[in-house]
Amino acid sequence: MEYKQELQNPLMDQAMEKAKEEKMEELRAQVRIRNYMNGYADSMALKCAVENGIADIIQKHAKPIALSELAKALPLPTVSTEHLERLMKYWVQLGLFTHEKDGSHGLTRCSKYLLREENTTMAAIILGLVTEWTIGPWHCLARSLEGGPTAFRRYHGRDMWDYVAGHPEASRLFNESMAGDTRLLLPVLMQECGSWLFEGISSLVDVGGGNGTAMVEIAKKFPGIKCTVFDLPHVIRNTNSSESTGVEWVEGDMFESIPPADAVLLREAIPKERGKVIIIDIVMDIEQDPELIRAKLMTDIDMMSDDLTVMDQRHHEAQALSRLAVKAPNPLLRRWHYDRNHQRLHEQSQPPQLALSDYLDCDNVCS
Q1: CA-to-CA distance for 230 and 248, rounded, in angstroms?
Q2: What GO terms are given for molecular function (predicted)?
Q3: Positive or negative, the Cα torsion across 298, 136, 145, 31?
Q4: For residue 224, is it within any domain?
């Protein structure tokens, strides 16, 4: 009898442990859904940190700062230290700042991307993309599954390009965010492959060049290249083109014509002209890191919400590019991966049969 009871006890313990683990798994699933549900808090807390210059204040302090000192340095008429403390706990959890043993807060690896005066800053990208007019269309994502108008068009009644054309502040923020993105990638691009990328080029046009960040830097690095920024009229009018030496500014529509040049720099579109084509784009299904995969998928859904026709064009144009690369007399395909962790470009081997979904961040086709 005692032996039978001893045998049953371990079995009962195992059953209880399994039931307990099942309950914990259910709880974890609920917590995950709640985190997704409140995911907007990440974006808004991030924007709050940038708007109030939290990282800049800590850097200026030159060492981890006490919460009371941080409160005094904020550019606000009054500060609720209670709210600041609660927000700081959230920022620390996000990995934006550290919490030291003495209660002070310092910078992390992520913090440098929030510093407004740094070349690597992502502050302009955050302020340009975390706005009411960019977030609003996500409320129409469910209906966009019907096809037809995109989420952006359903929400605003027009596509993104028409919207920013009629809203100068939105246009300014959008162009500054694109310029910020360019500033992150361009130095690495020119350092790692600039020597061969611009070889034999006397003229270069940046299609959809925005405020000219890329062309200004290329003109400085390669003064022998005639650099042209080509974009829609409202974009060109809102830039400080007079302050950019060595760069020509041209208004127009890429779907009608593109200024002639030896090479075309563009994002997410491929022209019909022969020559050197430099494409900077995000590519799906390359990385294994969950964070990178999620970032790429989010960007893909964001583009889908903005303009589905662009995605269709990209697939069609990629097929055309594949045919061009194979038929060219002296085809040269170089495929590069931008390692954001180490800020380096790595060349990888590439078979001739391509689709845009297979492309890496920087591809070059010469014929």
Answers
A1: 9
A2: O-methyltransferase activity; protein dimerization activity; S-adenosylmethionine-dependent methyltransferase activity
A3: positive
A4: yes
Q: Which domain holds residue 44?
A: 40-118
pLDDT at 8 (0 to 100): 60
* Spatial separation of the C-alpha atoms in residues 199 and 201, rounded to whole Å: 6
The encoded tokens of residue 302 equal 């964001």
Name the one residue in this structure whose structure tokens are 């390669």.
222
Q: Look up the CATH number of the domain holding residue 321.
A: 3.40.50
Whole-angstrom Cα distance, residue 22 to residue 32?
15
pLDDT in tens, 127-177: 999 999 999 999 999 998 898 899 999 999 999 889 988 999 998 898 888
> Is residue 192 included in any domain, yes or no?
yes
d(CA 316, CA 197): 25
Residue 260 located in a structural domain: yes
Quote the longest CA-to-CA distance of the chain.
96
Q: Which CATH number is 103's domain given?
A: 1.10.10.10
User: Which residues make beta-bridge pairs with 344?
Assistant: 339
Question: 3-class SS at 65?
Answer: strand
Chain-centroid distance, C-alpha 241: 25
At a CB cut-off of 8 Å and minimum separation 6, what does 84 contact? 67, 70, 71, 74
Q: Which pTM does this prediction carry?
A: 0.70
The strand pair at 203-207 and 362-366 is best described as unpaired
Out of 70, 103, 118, a domain closes at 118
211 and 105 within one domain: no
71 within a domain of the structure (yes/no)? yes
Lowest-pLDDT range of 71-75, 105-109, 160-164, 321-325: 321-325
Which amino acid makes up residue 219? A
Q: Look up residue 231 and give its two tokens.
A: 């974009």
Residues 6+ positions from 232 with CB-CB distance below 8 Å = 161, 165, 251, 252, 253
